Amino acid sequence: MEGLPKTRQQRGLLSLNEPKVTSLVLTALAIVWVIVSFLLISNAMFRWTSLAVAVSLFATAIIIYLRNTPLSTLNKYHTAIVETLLRSEAIPLAILDRNGKVVEMNEASSRMLGYQRTEVIGEPIMRMIDPGSRSQLQESLEQALVGETNQSNINITHRSGFPLELQVVCSPMLQDDVVIGTVMISHDLSDRKRNVERIRYMAYYDDMTGLPNRTLFQMKLTESLLRAKEEERLVGICYLDLDRFKLVNASFGREFGDMLLMQVAERLNRGLAEQDFVARMEGDEFAFLLNSIQSEEELLEHSRNILKSIEEPYELKGFPLHITASIGLVTNLNEQDDGYTLFKKADMALVKAKESGKNDCLLYSESWSNSSFERLKLQHEMYRAIQRSEFVLHYQPQYDLVSGRMVGVEALVRWEHPVRGLLSPGTFIPLAEESGMIVQIGDWVLQEACRQNKEWQNAGLTPMPVSVNLSIRQFLQHDLASRIAEVLEKSGLEPKYLDLEITESMTIDVGHVSRCLLAITDLGVGISVDDFGTGYSSFHYLKNFPIDRLKIDRSFVRDIQQDPSDAEIVAAIIAMAHNLNIQVIAEGVETEAQMEFLRKHNCDEMQGYFWSPPVSSENIEEMLKAC
Questions:
Q1: Which phi and psi angles does 8 have, rounded to 5°?
Q2: Of 26, 240, 477, 617, which alpha carbon lies 20 to 30 A from 7's?
Q3: Over the stretch 491-540, which tens digit does the pLDDT of each residue have?
């Protein structure tokens, strides 16, 4: 320590060869353990209190024993005892004389302060204390010298330069009932304080971007709405989502995506008014709370400026990148709306902005009817369901009508809605087709069905194809075949174990259908025509397109026992398909009579509730084990 005396003559070294000093030190150390108990209790560390008291009593017993032991015996033990206690690394302690100079200091104190013991002994303790804390410590030392024990918090600088905040307890050191110095025990509060600050930061801020998180945003929103209502002013919310961010992650990797998010966050925070607020909500979603706007037009203008800022090119590891964003907007013009409702409306406006072509901002309108609101709400929830992996697949077994064996399964999507429970496809598929989200859902279904089928095979279960329905929007994609090939490669599933189902209405564009189906069958994937007899009803494509299987629609199967026309249609479809070397599967089979009719007319396969409804992948696994 600079400025401290270095010579041996300048230091009041403790002589361990004198019994009186030994007794003094041991007495001080006994007091130490009592003070430790006080410290532990004050820091809510109750489980250590009994140990501290026990050690205190043990130290006291040693002192009594030593004071009643002949000098020769005492000399034999005192050095080892004192050195052991002073080497303690559990509690930092120091012994001061009446002038505040250090008489002794243990290794725990030395480590905490960064000074060697020999550098400190004989020096005034005040030289190590920050100027702002010296008067407080001086008061504590003076109280100890008049026989009082007290606690205080002081600041001190570690030898390496970083600050420490210590909680110290100063207690009088007695000899023959006379105060001859002070025992000072320290507890480092710095780590605890830093941990508290870190925990608070993690609770309210995003660790990657440094922006406030969803929790803090919602708190600020609630506060702003209360003040805005009192002051009768406008508050605006902008809910922003980057367009096609998943493609960035998929193409360049997560690290690249994180770098992009940090740059976006920096731009969003740039030039923000003091009373405004931006937060990262989750993933690639950000939200603005604008307290400085005067009108909805100003909110729209502000949002357009945000979009322009995001559109400026990025450079990540030397690679140029352009991205866009969509923003949903809402204001507090409806005073009945709380923060949760406003945020939901902004979220729905965001979903609508994305559906309208992306790279745009849209203000929520109260003119939307209740039915439209409910549809938008479901649409919004469906968009979130894709992000939050709320969709699951159930599988309906398909059986050979001759052997009765399970020969395949059809993958059917379900939505595990967090509030409404398990939703069937009829609840959300039409809206998904209308909004365009059917492509994302369909892509996920294809990937999951292939992954699951390969998992069953890896488990040693009987290999069989899985059927997946294609939507018309998926079928019209020019790169459909390459997408399917990529899914198969990623899952490791052989193409012959995948069957894709299309509807008759998809076959109207002969040129596209021919090219697309040939590309798919070249992969080795099977093609089935679903709901046959209910759509386009042209038999031309059966002859000219590479169709492997027809699925007779349930509407014909249902009444084959009661309606002769349906029975004739089903029989004719089976015969025609076999003449074209196309297999036939009937769906919607619910009775034994229906099954026997189909078997009599040589239908190849069937599926329906008569044998099994759609079930979970775990149930299919049990069925496969029984095959």
A1: -65, -35
A2: 26
A3: 999 999 999 999 876 766 667 788 899 999 999 999 999 877 654 445 66
Mean pLDDT of all residues in the chain?
A: 83
Between the alpha carbon of residue 84 and those of residues 78, 107, 114, 281, the distances in Å are: 10, 11, 21, 55
- Rounded to whole angstroms, the Cα distance separating 439 from 241 reads 19
How many angstroms separate the CA atoms of 378 and 420, rounded? 11
Assess contact for 81 and 63: CB atoms under 8 A.
no
Query: Exposed, middle or buried, 84 (CB in 10 Å: 0-12/13-18/19+)?
Result: exposed
Q: 9-65 pLDDT, tens per residue?
A: 433 444 344 445 555 555 555 555 555 555 554 454 444 444 444 444 444 545 555
Q: Quick one: tokens of 167?
A: 């909680």
Hey, what domains does the chain have and what are their CATH numbers?
19-194 (3.30.450.20), 205-367 (3.30.70.270), 391-626 (3.20.20.450)
User: Which DSSP letter does residue 405 get?
Assistant: -
What mean pLDDT do residues 306-311 have?
A: 92
Alpha carbon distances (Å) from 192 to 38, 39, 91, 136, 450 = 18, 15, 16, 22, 51
Residues 6+ apart with CB under 8 A from 263: 314, 316
CA distance 353 to 362: 6
Q: Phi then psi for 133, rounded to 5 degrees?
A: -105, -5
CA distances from 51 to 18, 40, 55, 187 (A): 31, 10, 6, 17
303: number of Cβ within 10 Å: 24
- Residue 607 phi/psi, 5-degree rounding, is -145, 150
CA-CA distances (angstroms) from residue 308 to 106, 305, 323, 324, 326?
63, 5, 10, 9, 11
What percent of the chain has a predicted confidence (pLDDT) above 70?
82
Phi, psi for residue 398 in degrees, rounded to 5: -120, 135
Using DSSP bridges, classify how beta strands 178-188 and 163-175 pair: parallel, antiparallel or unpaired: antiparallel
Give DSSP secondary structure letters for 109-155: HHHHHT--HHHHTTSBGGGGB-HHHHHHHHHHHHHHHTT--EEEEEE
pTM (2 d.p.): 0.49
> What type of residue sits at position 281?
M
The strand pair at 391-400 and 605-607 is best described as antiparallel
